[in-house]
């Protein structure tokens, strides 16, 4: 498990884009003033280091309070969202006050994986009405089906970094969806 504080910040150039998630290796001071600041946490040395890894770009925060947690599961559907069956987890506290957040997660090797992401707004380690979350592949959830099937969340990772964009979902009245004005 990783509990990271404070997170690592990197300048990201909007001109470099591979699937919408490219990291600039070196930013000049002029470029840094026009680039968005992206915070990267987790197993940073594994992403774009020629190793099997997942780089998750998290967006759609309702608030920047609380803690962000990612739980990784293997390709076995019987292990999906079962306590004690996670193969890796990354915790982030505090959440940066602005900009995208990239979570780098090492994986044992090429294969099939799925993850759940929780934004624990009040850091009580319980899923409450104020908390948000998402699943890999932005798998759809509803009030009646709050846990997607493994087949909807599963994805494959090869020998390189797999980039995935995730938009957080929150309870909105009688539905679950993205916030209208993310921070």
List the helices and strands and how they pair.
Elements: E1 2-4, E2 8-12, H1 29-34, E3 36-42, E4 53-59, E5 67-73, E6 88-92, E7 101-106, E8 111-120, E9 132-135, H2 150-153, E10 155-157, E11 161-167, E12 169-172, E13 175-177
Parallel strand pairs: 1-6, 3-7, 4-11
Antiparallel strand pairs: 2-3, 4-7, 5-6, 5-8, 8-9, 8-10, 9-12, 12-13
Give an overview in words.
- It is a single chain.
- By secondary structure, the chain is mostly beta strands.
- Helix content is 5%, strand content 39%.
- It has helices spanning 29-34, 150-153; strands at 2-4, 8-12, 36-42, 53-59, 67-73, 88-92, 101-106, 111-120, 132-135, 155-157, 161-167, 169-172, 175-177.
- The strands form two sheets. Strands 1, 5, 6, 8, 9, 10, 12 and 13 form an eight-stranded mixed β-sheet that branches. It has a five-stranded mixed β-sheet with strand order 2-3-7-4-11.
Low-confidence stretches: 1-34
Largest sheet: 8 strands, mixed
Q: What fraction of the residues are assigned to beta strands by DSSP?
A: 35-45%
Which geometry do the CA atoms define?
A: globular
- Total of helices: 2
Number of DSSP strand runs: 13
- The multimeric state of the shown protein is single chain
- Helix and strand run: EEHEEEEEEEHEEEE
In which range does the helix fraction lie?
under 10%
Terminal Cα separation, in Å?
Answer: 27 Å
Overall mean pLDDT: 82
Global structural class:
mainly beta
User: Over all CA atoms, what is the radius of gyration?
Assistant: 16 Å
